[in-house]
Structure formats: C-alpha cells, structure tokens
Design goal:
The protein is α+β, with helices and mostly antiparallel strands. It has helices at residues 35-39, 67-72, 93-98, 148-151, 166-172, 219-225, 229-234, 237-256, 260-274, 282-305, 309-322, 327-339, 343-356, 361-393, 404-423, 438-450, and strands spanning 102-103, 111-117, 120-123, 129-138, 146-147, 155-158, 176-177, 180-185, 206-216, 429-432, 454-457, 463-466.
Length: 480
C-alpha cells in the first residue's frame, strides 16, 4: 500500500486514461521500513522475506483490478468535476477540499481531516494494532492508485512503530471504530520530495479515505515485553491480567479474520503470562481462573479450526480442571474426539454438554452430525470386510456352507484384523457384511470372544463387533 513502505505495482498511469499495466519486479520484506529515517536521509536496513513468493502479492492475477470494482471507488472530487462554486474557480481540487477540513498538525496544514461517517467508542490508543480499509488518490485522478478494497484485504499495522507514513500515524490516531474519514496528507508527512516512483510523483499531496474496521489496545503487552525478569516477577495480578487481555483481544481479532494460527499464538502468550501468577486471595484466584478458562477454550477452538484435535483435547481437559462443569469444554472435547473418529468418547462429552445445557440447539446439531459420521464409518468398515470375505465366498459348498480350508483362512484373517481393531483406539466397532455363511459368522464370534470383544447379530448386517464397556455411555452400547 502507499501507506506501507512496500513495492507495489501501479494500477495505471497518473493521467486520466487507464494504460496497460506494466510489470515491475518486487520483493517482500519482513518488517516495515523506518520512514522517519528515510525522510531525513539517514537510510534504513531491511530483510527480505524468503518465505513469501517473489512478485506483487497484492494482485490476484495478471490483469490487475476488475474495472467494475474500480468504477465503484472513483472519486470525482479529486478532479474537480461537478464543482459549481464560482468563488473557488482558481483553486485546485485538493485546495477546495482543504477549505472544509480540520488541521491535525497545529496550524501546519500537514494533515487535514474530514469525518464522512462518525465512529463509536473511544479513539485509537497509543500502540494499538489497527485494521483499516482505505483508498488512496492523487490530485486530478479520480481512480485510486492503491486500494485495500480493490484487493479485498484489510491493512493491519501497529501505531507508533514506523510501519506507516507519518501522516497516517497522526490521522489514524484520531479515529474511532467504524469511522470513515478523509485525509489530505502533504508531502512532508507522506513521501517527501522523492515521492515513491512509479506511482507517486515527487512533492505529491495524497488524499486517503480510511475506514477504521477494528483496533486492539496492545500497549500493556508491548510494555510487558520490555520488563526485566525481576519486574515481571514483581508484577501484580492486575498488571498480568491487563497484559493477558491485550494478547487475548489480539487473538480474537486474528480469529475473526480466520487467521487461526496467529490467533493461537496470541492465546498461548497470554496463558504463559498468567500461569506463573502469585495469587494473594480468593478474589484474585477467581479472576485468574476466569481469564485462563477463556484462553484455554479459545485456544482449543483454534486447534479445532486447524483440524488439530489432539492439542484441542489437551486444552479442553485443562479447561475442565478449572471448571469441571463447563459446557464449552465438553462440547470442544466432543468435537475433537469426533475428528479422531473416537465416536464413543465424542458422544460421551456431547451428552454431558447437553445435560449441562438442556435444549442447546448447537449441541443437538453436533449429536446429529456424530450420528451421520458413525453411519458413514460403519458403511466404510462394512465395505472393507465385504472385500475381505470375497476370497472365501468362492469356496462355499453347495448347501451355502464353507469348507474347512476356507474357514481356516477366514479365521486367520479375522484374528489379524480383530487384533488390530482391538488395539486401535480410533476404531470403536466393526460391522461384518450380511451375506456371511453360518460358518463364517460362528468363526467371527469365536475369534471375537477369544479377544474379549462383544458381538451382536443383526438383520441388516452379519455381525457387529465392538469393545466392551470402555466406550459405553451410562450403560448403553455406543452408537444406538
């Protein structure tokens, strides 16, 4: 973006026509450049991010932005078209805009602001992590030369860290959540005498329209990183809770963007801050447990979204240590065990969650999902064992029985398969096909009995084999 010092290919020329997009080589860098040093001519260091592909990641394809989307972002005020104010005929479009804007630089006219839509709540605090949408315009050009909306990707950065131009540091700090504002930024607060070729010419004043999507107050967490080991050990629970909450809110923000890995890392950092707390009384213990419980449940959900059921199980069990009757913890365990195909354990925890929260529609739907997963699993197992018995079916006798040699082969196969089934915690039951001979059914029952497995005959299947008691819920066989 023009606000962030990265090389981005131009959408089009600076004139009124849209020329064919040119290719400019670019690389990705790991951290933002220090714009203050650049503007003062001091130079700066940067490191290339080799984990991301070369080229311009801001474009989805080689054709650039869709012209229908560009049309929706056109701003005729940048060209002065349609302005009928006779007294301002000798003014440029940006000069006319400036007449109705507020100076944010103590009379210096370096950054001007006009609120287009009022926001809500407090202003962005110092050191906050912010997410915005924006369009960037040059004078006499009604199409944005850069736009997060056209890329359909919000810009995220941290205030006060030199990640954006100085004008943005000033402008964004005045905004509230959901606010939409227009800013005119003079070159000394933008790209100075050099500009940013090829898109931004020298000495360019830029107009930004910025929408504040969200921000997270991260200052407490940032300050904590600068604490010495002794200062961290002496920190009060109030201080630690402020740090942990800052990390949690940052994690929540990443989660809303479906960036589950980054969200998980924030929750883990918050947990590490809280865990070594020295609690003075029951009230502090209550506050500590309440926040730690939220963090573990959120972390478990992140792992579920990443299809990592085992760490999700660990975090959910840790949550139950804090609150044994927590509905969400049992629900997360039910989901995690379902991902592992441990259907008995999944049903056990979902049933418990349902008892703790009667009438919960989400739990009811998850139990229905479990039933469908069990049926699908049974169908797959039935198909596998149908194939297993195909080799012996050709040796059936004329009366529908099976000769001794085939039964011996069947017994050997069953001993191998049922032994593996017994040792596999992810396989709760086996369903053998309905077209077995009486001898094959008897053989299966005998092998199962030898291995201390339970069997059941059925009209829709030959034999159902399952593990006794361990996966049962309240004395009922699983999956009924």
């Amino acid at each position: 973006s023009p606000a962030v010092m990265e090389t981005v290919e131009p959408f089009g020329a600076f004139d009124d026509g849209i020329q064919e997009r040119q290719a400019y080589p670019s690389v990705n860098i790991k951290d933002g450049l220090d714009l203050h040093d650049l503007l003062e001519g001091k130079g700066t260091d940067f490191e290339i991010d080799t984990s991301r592909p070369l080229g311009d990641a801001d474009y989805d394809d080689e054709e650039g932005f869709d012209m229908r989307d560009v049309y929706q972002q056109l701003n005729s005020e940048c060209t002065g078209v349609g302005d009928e104010s006779g007294s301002e005929d000798d003014m440029t479009p940006f000069e006319r805009m400036a007449l109705h804007m507020t100076d944010l630089t103590d009379g210096g006219q370096g950054v001007l602001k006009k609120v287009l839509r009022q926001g809500v709540g407090s202003k962005v605090p110092e050191g906050a992590i912010v997410r915005v949408h924006y369009n960037s315009y040059l004078e006499y050009s009604d199409e944005p030369y850069d736009s997060s909306r056209l890329r359909n990707r919000q810009l995220q950065f941290k205030l006060g860290k030199g990640e954006v131009i100085p004008g943005w540091e000033i402008a964004v700090a005045t905004m509230q959540r959901t606010e939409l504002s227009r800013f005119l930024v003079k070159p000394e607060y933008a790209y100075g005498a050099m500009g940013c070729p090829p898109r931004i010419p020298p000495h360019a004043t830029i107009m930004f329209e910025v929408e504040m999507v969200s921000f997270v107050d991260h200052k407490a967490a940032d300050d904590f990183q600068d604490f010495s080991k002794q200062e961290r050990e002496r920190a009060t629970l109030e201080q630690l809770i402020a740090v942990a909450n800052a990390e949690r809110e940052a994690g929540n923000d990443f989660f809303q963007q479906k960036m589950f890995g980054r969200a998980a890392s924030k929750y883990i950092r918050a947990i590490r801050v809280l865990e070594p707390s020295r609690l003075k009384n029951e009230e502090e213990e209550r506050q500590w447990k309440a926040l730690l419980l939220k963090l573990r449940l959120n972390l478990a959900l992140c792992y579920l979204r990443q299809c990592k059921p085992k760490p999700a199980i660990t975090q959910s069990h840790d949550a139950l240590q804090l609150d044994p009757k927590n509905v969400k913890a049992h629900f997360r365990l039910g989901q995690a065990y379902m991902q592992l195909s441990e259907f008995g354990k999944s049903r056990k925890h979902l049933v418990r969650a349902g008892k703790l929260s009667p009438g919960n529609e989400e739990i009811r739907q998850e139990l229905q999902k479990l039933d469908r997963a069990v049926k699908k699993f049974q169908a797959v197992e039935k198909s596998l064992y149908t194939k297993m018995f195909q080799n012996t079916s050709a040796n059936k006798t004329s009366d529908g029985g099976t000769d001794d040699s085939s039964l011996a082969e069947t017994r050997k196969l069953l001993q191998e398969r049922l032994s593996a089934f017994k040792e596999n915690p992810n396989m709760p039951e086996l369903v053998l096909p309905a077209n077995l001979s009486p001898g094959e059914i008897r053989c299966a029952e005998e092998v199962a009995k030898d291995l201390q497995l339970e069997t059941e005959k059925g009209a829709q299947f030959g034999v159902r084999i399952y593990k006794p008691a361990a996966d049962e819920v309240e004395g009922m066989p699983p999956f009924r």
